[in-house]
Design goal:
By secondary structure, the protein is α+β, with helices and mostly antiparallel strands. Among the domains are: 61 residues, no CATH class; 47 residues. 62% of the residues lie in helices and 17% in strands. Strands 1-2 form a two-stranded antiparallel sheet. β1 and β2 form a beta hairpin. α4 packs antiparallel against α5. The N and C termini lie far apart (110 Å).
Length: 157
Amino acid sequence: MDATAAPLALIPAAEKLVQAVSNDIVVIDTKWYRKKKIGKETILVPIDVQLHVNPVSIGIGAAGLALAGGLAYLAWEGLPFTTGLKDSEYWQGLVGKVTRHRTEPQRQSALDLCLAGCAAFTDPIQRFACQAACRARIRTSAFTVHSSYRNQAQTQK
């Protein structure tokens, strides 16, 4: 084969590759209307919108997303000669406010604390009596608080 014939043979293959890559995978064709005032009348002017999705646009979007993610990572972590955003006081305060409710330990109720103390009893009857006393104490204190509010409401009428 001749040295000049090889590049000429590649041209049809390259044309097929370009056509395959530039073909649309999805085409969204829609029309929306905007209001336009002409004199005293308002008319709706149609605007045609087409969205073409092809392998080239997907590749460009993926490359842009990867570049933006890399720059965001560098800005957050910082370079060897600078500090990143994660070390700034502003971001530390903001992250602390956002995650505060997740990092605080869950508060135990009075019943849970009382029942945890009952676990120290080895005798099952004493443990059961302690648990019953805890439940009775919690119910009584809740009833007492509730009835005191009811008494206050009746005296204010």
